[in-house]
Structures are given as C-alpha cells and as structure tokens.
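Task: complex structure prediction.
Instruction: return structure tokens for all chains below.
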Amino acid sequence: MILKTLFSQLFTKPATNRFPAKYMPKSVLGFLGKVKEGKATLVPPVPVPPRFRGKIAYDREKCIGCQLCIRVCPAKVIEFLPEVKKIRMHVARCTFCAQCVDACPVDALAESPDFLLSDTDRSSAALTVE
Amino acid sequence: MAETQNVYEIPIGPIHPALKEPIRFTFRVEGERIRGVDIRAGFAHRGIEFMAMKRNLIQTLYLSERICGICSISHPITITLAVERAAGIEVPPRAQYLRVIYSELERIHSHLLWAGVAAHELGFDTLLHLTWKVREQVLDLLEELSGNRIDYALPIYGGVRRDVAPEQIPKVEAMVRYYRGLLDELLDAFLRDPSVEARTRNVGILTPKEADSLCAVGPTARASGLSKDVRQDRPYLVYGELGVKAITPRDYGLEPRGDVYDKAVVRLLEVAQSLDLIETCLYEMPEGEITSFPKIPALLAFLKKAEGEGLGWHEAPRGEVIHYIRLEAGVEEPIVWKVKAPTYSNLMSWVPMFRDQEVADIPIIAASIDPCMCCMDRVHVVRDGSPGTVLKEELLRLSRAKTDRVTRHLSPVPRHGGGL
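Output:
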C-alpha cells in the first residue's frame, strides 16, 4: 500500500510549497532584489486563513493610552510613550497570541495577515509599530 | 559488582544526533548488549516556574504554553483548570466542549509527529515523510481555528478565546474524514510492515508490573496493558460524559507485551479515538457563551482578588500532566506554580526498557516513551555559577530554615518565592 502511495507521488505535485523559488537561489537576498526589478517571479507563500494572527495592526488615532495591552502582553513587546500617551510595539519580540487585541477596550489593535517579518535589524521600521 | 571486565561505559548525550533533546545516558555495555543505564536529566531547565512569579496570571498562561511546543494546548488547559479551581471560576459548557476539541486535535498532531520520529529512528525515512505530510492537515486545521500553526493561544481562564465558527465546521468534518480514510494506510504502513515489526517487536519491553511500580503514564503505561488514562480515571471538562476508555493493545486484538510495537499500536489507535471524540463534540456541543469573562479587565480584577490553591490535571498526548497553583488576594502573580509533565513520570521506565537490548536499539527505545525534556526539567540548582546536586539532608535543612523564616516574620510566603 505504501509503495502505491510512493509511486503515485512521483507523478503528483509535491506537498511542499516551493517558496520563494522553485529551486533554492544562490543568494536569497539577491533573488529578492531581482524580484523587485521584475527579472524573476516569486512563488507565492501558502495563503493564510481568514482569522490568521499576524503582525499586530495599530490604529494610533483610536488609542486612548490605557496601557491595558502592556499589562497583558506576555512577551513585553509594548512600550508606553508617556508624552503622547500612545504605544510603540517591538514586533521582533511578539509571540502572536493577540491577547492585546482581545484586551483593547477601543479596538485600536487588530490582527493583520502579515507574516513575512524576517529582518537583519530587529529595530527596523518594518518591525516597529507605532 | 558481579559484572565482568568486559563491561564498558558508553556515554550518550547530553547533545547527540540520536537524541532530539538534551539528556545524558551512561550505558554499561557488554559487547552489543546493554547491561544497565544511568540517566541524568536537567539540561533543558529554564526556570519557567520562577519567571511566572514575576508575571500576572494572563502572562503566565502564555508562559505555560511555551513549556513545550507540542503540548501547547495541554499546558494552558491544565493551568486554567488549576486557576479555575483555585479562584472558583465556572466554565460555560460550550467552552468545555471546545477545549476537548482543541486538545484532541493536539493529540492527533502529537501522535503523528511521534510516529514520524519513530519511523526515522528505525531508519525508515520514507514513512517519516509520509506521516509528516499527512500531519499537515491537522496543523492546517489548527491554524484555521486558532490563527497560529503552533502555540495556539486558545484557552483562557473561564473559557476559550475562539469559537468554531459555523463556516469552519465543514473543514473540521473534512479533516476527520481525511484521517479516517487514511488510518488504514497508516496502520498498514506501521503495524503490518515486516521491517518495522522486526525492529520493534520485543524491543524495549516494559512489563505491566514494572509500568505500575514505576508509575508510568500515558501511552507508555497503556502499551503495557494498564488501563490508565486521566480522561477515564478522573474525568474533567466533559470527558466524563463522552465516556473515554483507555486504549490498550487489546483493542487491536493483541495481548500487550509493552514493547515499542505496542506503543505504536496505542498511539495510532488513539488517533482514531480522538477523531471520534472530535466528531461527537462537534455535534453535541451546546450553543452559548465561550467564556465567563468576555472583558479582560474584569478577568484581571477577579484574578487579583482570588485566593486559594488549585490542582489541574489533563491527559496530554504523552500522559498525565499536573499543574498546582496558589493564589493570594491582592497579588497578581501566582505565589506558587508547580508543573509535573508526563515525561517526568515516564523517565524511570527507561531503565527496565533498556536492559539487555542492543546498542542499535537505543534511539528507538529512547524515543518510544515520546520524551519531552523541556517539559520535564524543573529543578536544577546552580549557585555561584557552579551546578551542584542538593542532597536530602541539605534540602531538609533549607526547608526548616524557610519554615523558621516564614513563621518568624509571620508574613505570608515571600512574594517572589524567597529563593533558597
């Protein structure tokens, strides 16, 4: 039975999604640069489900500075900015439990579908939400 | 010592390619035969229980999830059960059914993960890839339900955080159908394969008497024929109504021998049992609230006022897990938090299992109890930078000193545990 499965697998699509390219590029950064220039095409990642917990989206206008999110955050991601009574999130530490989203009384925080967050600088603009 | 001069010691670990997690074995080997083993644990200790004393209970919940990446529903469910008992929180019926669904989904993925690892340890990598390919289905479903592929962040004190939406029910049903259709192929690949049988039959035997006297738990005990399952023996959530029965190799028509083969039988049959439980829960689940504290500030305020101690128990995929917690009014952090993970109970069953086995069988016997070191390592004393073992007399002295200290000040237990 297992042999049947194995032989049929030879002629079907692999279970693994070949992200970001069909064959491993020599340099991933170089390949991504080429994608930006339009010289290469990216094999898209597997689509995320509708209620995916990705990078937290922050609506600065709605935020009332109650600091409830800071009290419940298990990874201490959120920093309070006392002068403006707003928050700053360091996504590099985030564990994506979205407890802050549940705690926020004014719905200033939301789960976004973004998940490609790797970076060489943990305090880069992409990894800081404010 | 009656052993001859031909007995040599082979150390394996703490870091070794055959081990997935750090633990040290010292085998006494005579030729190819293992004559004895000494086990030293403690290499994956992270001080999680101490960290919890500096975090409020909601933060502790997510910390408990990170005790183990595979049991990331078992540990949060157990700590919520403990805190709910300590604080007297009622859990709505729908939330109890949802917790059962989530923990059975976790059991399916954990057992399939183990089956793949076992196949890999036997050198049967084709089966590893096949098993892990089909395991993706349940991980995809968990991602669909929770939003995360691993570390699901689903249970919360008083209920669960996410409901199974009506449009998701067909996806759960599809997953159940997929595995039902596939189970026969998996049983065929694992249990009716001559090479798997040759490598696992009569290897790593744990007799029922040894399993009983060493207090083995979970599939390790059930493979030896003990009818031991927390869901059956001390029902919690809605497991009592669901009527869970412990699975032993007898359910597959085999007399239990307690070897690695029997452990595979038990785990694969438990996948089928979990599928039945998920289906039953899905249809019997009542409508209603999914948490008794929809507002987080209300929950935080309630937990701050709570006082008392509670014990939570749960049948994790690897066996019984127990959390003890003590809360004090006016303090947000837990005063005491103690975790007993299943591997801690199963560790000693390695000693009879390794006896008189071959060196080449070490990886599969070590893997057969599905060990999880990061779950287990809880106490390791490091003082002035040097690790040391605290003997009983020293512990007794420390314990008396602490009693003295506590009664002298007549204050409650020091807020951050006080240390040694």
